[in-house]
Amino acid sequence: MLIIDSKDCENIDKALKKYKKKFEKSKTLLQLRERQAFIKPSVVRRGQVLKAIYKQNIASGKIDV
To answer: What is the residue-level pLDDT of the chain in tens, covering all 65 positions?
Structure first.
């Protein structure tokens, strides 16, 4: 649960902005979307390996971005 400490003189828009920023930093929505469907650990690992290979190719200059 997110708790926003707001001062009495603070505008409601500022408090809402703080809430949105805290919500985004907590990655609640990202976790919710990940849990909608089960992904096998081997598939997750394969994606991580492919991403690492891609980054390595960019760093070595084999792929132009």
So the answer is: 788 887 777 788 888 898 899 999 999 999 999 899 999 999 999 999 999 999 999 999 998 77
Count Cβ atoms below 10 Å from residue 15 Cβ, excluding itself. Answer: 14
Report how many domains make up the chain.
1
The three-point CA angle 20-22-27 to 5° equals 100
> What is the C-alpha separation between 16 and 22, in angstroms, rounded?
10
Q: Residue 25 belongs to what domain range?
A: 12-60
Its pTM surpasses 0.85 = no
